[in-house]
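User: Hey, my collaborator sent me this sequence without any context and asked if I could get a structure. I don't really work with proteins. Can you help?
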Amino acid sequence: MAGRVEGKVAVVSGASSGIGRASLEMLGREGARVVGTARREEKLNEALEAVEAAGGEGMVIAADLEDEATAPMVIDAAIEAYGQIDILVCNAGVGWQYGEEHPGTMGAIHEASLENWRDIVGGVDLEGYFTMIHAALPHMLERETGSIVSIASMAGMTGLYDAHAYTATKGALINLTRSMGITYAKQGVRANCVCPGFIDTPLIEPAIDLFRDDATRWAMVPMGRAGTPEEMAYAVTYLASDESSYCTGTALLADGGCNSRSFPAAG
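Assistant: No problem. I've predicted the 3D structure and written it out in structure-token form, which is a compact way to encode the shape of the chain:
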């Protein structure tokens, strides 16, 4: 039985860990030739080894998306190696851990400086998506086929008491997805995004301990637990594949029910 993305070529940014790595591995297992990019070469090589161990094929490119030359270089390398790009998964971004390493960036707007704001909004969390899409889209439009899947956040659909720059970028990304979805539908290119909730990855490491307390975990998430990178990869693979051929401009929530409630549980 053929894989769900058999014969396709998929480029995944932020592929060294978390949702990006899980997506790279799953797309590889499902038949795509994969091209992963991120800053950490050692972790990228581990991801590629996992793809190859499962019978998949691919390549990895260690690079920093904050360098504007990176995205065109990655896309050109993928086309040179495999002749086409069918799937683009934009995943590289920041999370709660970034706020600990860069104080002020994940704070409320009255706590943030302009530099903090630009660090998130003008950095990889939004601009990195633009550069990857901008580089890949002409090739998809020329072939009149393609699926762009961006990783947004449940925080792009609802407010948070802090992380205002982060929520601004995720809200912008969701509406960018909607705009691309209706703009490029006639040319056969679909654009969708996945909106994860609390996912057990290094990006939310500061919050993971909260799930070890019974009262707190049910208050945080109706399902009472953090999601896994693999659960998000299933959502990515669905939107990347022809199974979702009638979906474009979609923001798929995968948040354990967080956005469906009006207030946290009492306990």
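In plain terms: The chain has a mean pLDDT of 92. You can pass these tokens on to your collaborator as they are.
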